[in-house]
Each structure stands twice: as C-alpha cells, then as structure tokens.
Design brief:
Length: 498
C-alpha cells in the first residue's frame, strides 16, 4: 500500500487516542462516569455509537462477503436487522432508561436484572455477568479476526501482527477514557463508516456502462431476486429475519439507552440511528452485489469474499482515499470491540468483583479493576482469534444468538411483566444460553452436523427462554410489593413524559 494510505491511518489512530485522552480527563474519576458517562450522553452520540458498536467489522466485511457469495439471500438478514433495531428503540429504549434509574441507579444490565427484584446480589446478577464475559470474549474475537484480515490483505502484514495492532489501539483508548471515550470514538467512526459505505459501491458502479450491464454481469453467478425468493425455504427465511430478535439482548447496544441524557432525547436518537443504519446497510449490500458483477465482468480474482470492500478500496481509489477507507474498516472493527470490552469489564467489576469481594473498594480502585478487566478480556479474545481460518460472520452470528436468546426475552419481561420473579429470570437466562450452545456445538445430525445447519440458533433459544420464563412465573409466588411499586413508578414516569 502507498505511503499516502499510511498517513491517513496514522491520522485516524492519532484522533482515536486523542479522544481517549480527552475522555480520561472528563469522566473516569468515578465508576458511573467510566461505565455510563454519567448518563449525560447526547442523542447524536447515542445514535451513532449504538449503530457503530452494533455493526462492527461484519458491516464492511462480513455482510458484503455474504452478499458476494449468496446473492440476495443476504438481504433477508438486513431486513431482520433493520426491523429489530427499530423495535428496540420503541420497546426497550424508553423503559430501560427510566427503569435502570428507578432500580437504584443500575449501572450494568446484570445489576439491573438483580435490582429489578430488589436484590443487589441476586444470583441472576452473577450468572448474567458470566454469560456476558463468555459471549463477549467470543464476539470480540470476531472483531479481531476482521482486523487481522484487514492488515494481512491491505498491508501485506502477518495476520497475527494485524491482530496485535488492532487490539493495541482499541485497548489504549478504552482503558483511558471508558464509556465516554468509547461513545465519542464510536460517533467519529460511525461518520467514517457512513461516508465509506456510500462512496465505495457508487464508485464501483461507475465502472459499468449501465445498471443493466451490472445486473447482467452479477446474475451470471447468483440467482435473481425472484429466483432467490422461489428457492428460499421457510426455515431459511425465519433464520435470516430472526437476526432482528437479537437486538433486545445485546448489552453493548442497550447500555447506550441507559446512558442517554433523557427519555425525550431517545426520539432524536432513533431518527438519526435508523437513518444511518438504512443507508449503511444498503451500502454494504450494494458493495457485495457490485463486487459480484465486477468480478465477473473484469475477471477480478477474490480469494476471500469478506475482503471485497478492501479490494475495491485498493483498486478504485487514490492511495490517500484508500487509507481513509481502510480507516473506515478499522472504525467499524474498533467501535464494536471497545464497546464489548467495556461492557465485559463493567460486568467483571460491578457484577462479579463487587459481589464476591466483601470489602468496600474506593471509586479509584473500582475504575482500576475495570481497566484490568478490559485487558484480561482482550487477551482472551486475542487467543481465540489467533487462527486466521475463522469466519467473521460465523463468530458474530454465534455470539449474537447467545445474547439474543439469553437476555432478549428477559429484558422484555423485565420491562413489561409486573409479576416477573427472580426464579423465572434465572431460568430464562440459563435455558436460552444452553439452547444456543447445544444448537451450535452438539453433533446430533447425520454426519456430525449440528442443528444450527437447519435453523439459526437464536430462534429455538429465544422461544425456549420465553416459554421458560412464562412457565416459571405461573408457578411462582408474586414478587413483593416494593418490586412491583418500582415497575409502577417506571410506567408513571413514562406516562408523564409522553
């Protein structure tokens, strides 16, 4: 890659680290500031932070790669994601913002699960924290795989070297600035991703004489939209659309709703966030589709479909712009990794260390422990990502399903079911997580295949978790009056604001 591209990347790295230093001085003296930015994050930062931390490297690499390989089948995943994100803004964001404050100012999702039942150290807190650390370690490794592939493909570096560089930068600003640094860098990264996902497919399209020529070239190797629909099975459609169910249980996304400065600001965040998402997801699909046509028309050799965005960045643009586009991929990767590391560290600090350790730690000590947690999860993810044969989309889909099934139903029940009990919550988390793990890893089908080859694991996981919660509620005693009073207070606050 040309020297100008390295200049673009150097500027990007400097900006990210500069934001980390700024945030370090602004909001990391106490644990609330380090974990939630003092609940004073603006709707603009909330929207792009939620979007950037959600989409990660799979938006610029995984989704274009899926479109490149399967054609229009990848579009149904995008539809499910858009529907799920919109539902999340309406169903979860307002109530969660109020309820987490009403429930004794809960700073993390596991803490909210516990205080929702009036028990700061309830077992549901430790269990959910353990699941967060487990699945986020897997999720973070997916981002590192994307970073390793980027440096290997674009810069000719070793895959493992790329992993280490990616991790070093993102850990630096996350350690320094906590939630504020993560949110502010996510905002900048979201803007970069937006520009890149508009620019690349449009410039690639201009290489063709017409839309008809591009479509004709692409359809040489993938089915048309009508053919794709006819060949699509019901289970295949359900599996793709079911990605949207995952939004209700993603801690690194819904924690943004807890940190926004007010409930009224959520509507602004929703409008900005959904507009950003629609444009970027169409751009990602467009990159993959134009990539199919370009490869067929001009004989482009693509060894790894997940690098099509990188290839376009190198062959279609001036080196200075190529560097900016490489920064866009790093932005997508780092925005998600930083969010996941911070949520994992928050759970290790607030939900495991504070519960296990009987001695009261100072704010400074707690923040320091949170930083150790960031480093620990990062190293574990690095080991998981060391194998370059890992698929980005596969790793993301497994972790996404794990959170969606373990936490998604419970979050909804917490917010909408007044008589939800602690036993039901614990049973729901465990049943959802176990179902997903069984679906992914148990070789119960012919030839050692797993059930995930039949239907996406989030579908049975979400259903079983929901039914388990409902069933346990029926046979449980009513929660005590104080718990129900907080539920009523939350609805009263929301009614007054509407």
């Amino acid at each position: 890659m040309a020297f100008e591209s390295y200049i673009s990347l150097a500027i990007y790295f400097a900006v990210m680290l500069g934001i980390g230093l700024f945030a370090y001085k602004q909001s990391t003296s106490d644990i609330s500031g380090y974990i939630l930015g003092g609940r004073q994050v603006s709707p603009h930062v909330t929207a792009l932070s939620a979007g950037a931390s959600d989409m990660s490297g799979w938006m610029l690499m995984g989704l274009p790669g899926a479109m490149f390989l399967t054609g229009f089948d990848a579009m149904y995943i995008a539809i499910g994601l858009v529907a799920g994100a919109l539902a999340n803004y309406f169903l979860v964001a307002p109530k969660l913002r109020v309820y987490t404050e009403v429930a004794d100012d809960s700073l993390t999702i596991p803490e909210f699960f516990a205080k929702r039942f009036g028990q700061s150290n309830a077992s549901v807190r430790m269990v959910s924290a353990g699941i967060i650390v487990m699945f986020f370690t897997l999720y973070t490794s997916a981002g590192l795989v994307a970073g390793g592939k980027l440096f290997e493909s674009a810069f000719g570096m070793g895959y493992q070297t790329g992993l280490i560089i990616t991790l070093a930068v993102v850990v630096s600003y996350t350690l320094l600035g906590g939630f504020l640094a993560v949110s502010m860098t996510d905002f900048v990264q979201g803007c970069i991703m937006f520009v890149a996902l508009v620019l690349v497919p449009i410039v690639a399209f201009t290489e063709f004489d017409s839309l008809a020529q591009m479509n004709s070239a692409a359809l040489e190797s993938v089915p048309s939209l009508s053919e794709s629909w006819q060949e699509l099975t019901l289970l295949g459609l359900v599996s793709s659309l079911a990605w949207g169910l995952g939004y209700f249980g993603q801690p690194h996304i819904i924690v943004r709703f807890m940190a926004i400065r007010s409930v009224k600001a959520i509507a602004t965040a929703r409008n900005i966030g959904m507009s950003w998402m629609l444009v970027t997801i169409i751009g990602a699909l467009g990159t993959g589709f134009v990539g199919i046509a370009y490869a067929n028309q001009f004989g482009l050799q693509v060894a790894d479909a997940e690098t099509i965005f990188i290839i376009f960045s190198e062959i279609l643009f001036h080196p200075l712009i190529s560097g900016f586009l490489m920064a866009a991929i790093l932005a997508a990767i780092m925005s998600t990794i930083s969010s996941q590391l911070l949520v994992s560290a928050s759970s290790l600090t607030e939900d495991i260390y504070r519960v296990v350790n009987k001695k009261e730690a100072s704010q400074e000590q707690t923040v320091a422990i949170g930083r150790y947690g960031v480093a620990g999860v990062a190293l574990a993810a690095l080991l998981l990502a060391w194998d370059s044969s890992n698929s980005i989309l596969s790793l993301v889909s497994n972790a996404w399903a794990g959170f969606g099934a373990a936490f998604g139903p419970l979050v909804l029940f917490c917010l909408y079911k007044k008589n939800l009990t602690h036993k039901a919550a614990l049973a729901g988390i465990l049943s959802g997580a176990v179902t997903v793990l069984f679906w992914i890893y148990a070789p119960v089908l012919e030839g050692g295949a797993t059930l995930s080859s039949v239907v996406y694991e989030i579908v049975p996981g979400f259903i079983i978790s929901s039914l388990t919660i409902w069933g346990v509620i029926i046979f449980s005693e009513e929660p005590h009056e104080e718990v129900q009073a907080k539920f009523t207070e939350t609805n009263k606050v929301l009614a007054e604001l509407s």
